[in-house]
């Protein structure tokens, strides 16, 4: 009996520690981590595949919709909503499941193969919000750090997943000198600045990474989707 | 039997929803909420009084210490760490426990009475980090939105709780016209700008509210302590 109790307590303590780790990642306290801690593999697997990840996503997007509705949108007024793509509109959970739910580092070759496969599914709550924002007459702009070379497969994957209507989709032009060696935060800030100069009025912005929503020319209000995988 | 199962599922679902609510608050997705949702009272009470809140705090402060240690501090170089006070250095959990763990709105009279009582305890992990930062020769600066009128009792409470050594403590001068009707974010950003002009080099910053750590003249790296109570 004693052994069972000891095991059970250790498991409980590990869940507490993994929950703290996840919260610290989501709140931008733990940054630039390479992989999910090995001891948290089971915890993260249950989190992602169970009800909590879906519920956490729904809560954020429901708040985003309340905010979006509260804005007095004038049709043709260039009211814009910016979306990130990976693990914001399209889910890569299937890929990360094959990499030990983030406990193994992302492999460039296999990840590009996954992208080129073009079978990423929509995050269901994101697709719902996307359609609701179109209904409210927001212009949608997608900014991704996927390179230009993945434009064709990405547009097709988005269309297959239900994302068919957007004013603009911006890929990272890796040949541009200004982006060489620069962070995603710098790249995305600069692209948003260009959008503003073009007349887009960025009201909302949603991403699963802090680098999607921090920086300059950010929206009036930004939303951070959960993602403990990377 | 059926009733019991139904009750149990409802409880489970409520915990999922309350967990999503808490995450959305911690990640700055839900903002300016007036009270904790009534249905989450029991969930938040267990979170705060159980092991998770303490573990979540410890995780953030442990990460902060790793960062603090990684900086090459030169003694006398004005390397500075900024702390918020309420629910960062001193805990008001006892007060909020009397207000239904955030489910009842803060009452100005009773909260001021609590502050004037001067019996707030240190958050144990914060006190440890505070002492470690002093050991690393950081200058400590405290910025609080408590008014000047609470200076004496606050300094005494801090001393009693173990916080005895800081370069500066800044209270909100509510008679200053620039702060009338301004947010905490504006007030704290401005005070940090003054610090910078005075030669303080802000390396780290810790608070339990996003208004403590967003804005301008922020530190190189900021840390957000958990607080689902307000």
From TrEMBL, chains A, B:
GO MF terms held by the record: acid phosphatase activity; nutrient reservoir activity
Species in which this protein is naturally found: Lupinus albus (White lupine)
InterPro entries to which the protein is assigned, alphabetical: Acid_phosphat_B-like (IPR005519), Acid_phosphatase_pln (IPR010028), APS1/VSP (IPR014403), HAD-like_sf (IPR036412), HAD_sf (IPR023214)
Transmembrane segments: none
Function, as annotated: May function as somatic storage protein during early seedling development.
NCBIfam families associated with the record: plant-AP
Keywords attached to this entry: Glycoprotein, Signal, Storage protein
Name recorded for this polypeptide: Putative Acid phosphatase
Membership in a protein family: Belongs to the APS1/VSP family.
